[in-house]
Every structure is written in C-alpha cells, then in structure tokens.
Write a structure and sequence with these properties.
By secondary structure, the chain is of the alpha+beta class. Helix content is 21%, strand content 27%. A hairpin with a 6-residue loop joins strand 3 and strand 4.
C-alpha cells in the first residue's frame, strides 16, 4: 500500500502537531501571488522560489489540554524598489516563527494580547502556503532601500548653496492667504 503525502496547502494542524510531523519544499515565487505583486524585479527576472519548512509540536501542560504549535521557516529573495534612488534591488527575506493554536477566537484574542508569540484559533484545515506568504509579507521592510545606493542621488540646485552664502529666500507659500485676511480693528 502506498502512503499518501499530506497536501501542504491543506493542513490538519491538530493531527500534524500530534504526529510531530514535518514538511518542507520549494514553491515557485509566482505561486505566491500577493508576494509577487509587491515585487519590482528588473525586466526578464521572475520572482525567486520560496524555500519553506513546517514542523508540528504538541506540548504537554500540567492540568490543561496539550498546546499545539507550528514552527514555520521560509527564505526567499524579493525584488523591491529603493525609496532613495528608485532603483530595483534584491532583498533577502527570512522568516522563523512559532505559532500557538488555541481552541477558539476568544481565547486567541485574549492570549495574543498577553503573549509575544503568535496565537491563532485552531482551524479544521489550514492553508499552509497562505500562512507562510502572510509571514513573508510581514517580513518585508517598511521602507525598502539599499544600504548604499549604487548611483549618486540626484541633488536639487537649491540645495547646493555655498557655505558662505545665506540660503536664498523662498517665498512663503501662505503669503497669499495673508492678503485675504480682514484688517484688524484698532
């Protein structure tokens, strides 16, 4: 009899954790559509593959139900646009997180406020690819930029005043509003 491999996209978390099971693999970068949509690769470069690993764990707790945990790790290289020079650059992403599963949403909400680790309500089936993609999206930098931009940044002519000269006076953009104000009664 042939053993059937579990579908990594549809995971029974309780059974996976109880068996201390492990899964790993690579997904083509284009299959993670939300992550692919955040990227700005140079022409003719497809999003890189995502290497991932998931392992389940069931921890015994004295006087309580066992805790169900899922350890996720994923690595990918994504193409982002530098916010300083506006050029594309490759950014490595690495995720290594543990998720604790609890009975229901109310318990998850209460524990999530108290604990540092991620806490989710236990679903019957979990879409592992979606969860890993979510974690990768959360790992994206808020302001993507090169450590050192490869090209000099453009500088405005107004910013190039000599040290000895006073900066040129710029007109106040609100000066027009002053003319609209009624005169003060004296």
């Amino acid at each position: 009899m042939k053993t059937r491999q579990p579908d990594p996209l549809r995971l029974d978390v309780a059974a996976f954790a109880a068996d201390a099971a492990e899964l790993s693999g690579d997904w083509p970068g284009v299959d993670l559509t939300r992550l692919a949509a955040t990227q700005a690769p140079p022409q003719d470069i497809a999003p890189a593959a995502v290497a991932w690993r998931a392992s389940g764990e069931r921890r015994a707790v004295a006087g309580s139900e066992p805790e169900l945990w899922l350890h996720l790790s994923a690595n990918a290289a994504v193409w982002l646009t530098c916010q300083r020079c506006l050029q594309p650059f490759e950014q490595p992403l690495a995720v290594d997180t543990r998720v604790r599963f609890v009975r229901d949403e109310a318990q998850a909400e209460a524990l999530d406020a108290e604990l540092e680790e991620d806490v989710l309500a236990l679903p019957r089936w979990l879409d592992l690819r979606t969860l890993i993609e979510d974690e990768l999206l959360l790992a994206l930098p808020l302001v993507p930029r090169h450590e050192h931009c490869p090209q000099p940044l453009p500088v405005r002519v107004d910013d190039l005043a000599d040290d000895d000269e006073a900066p040129a006076e710029r007109p106040n953009p609100f000066a027009v509003l002053q003319a609209l104000k009624p005169p003060k009664a004296g």
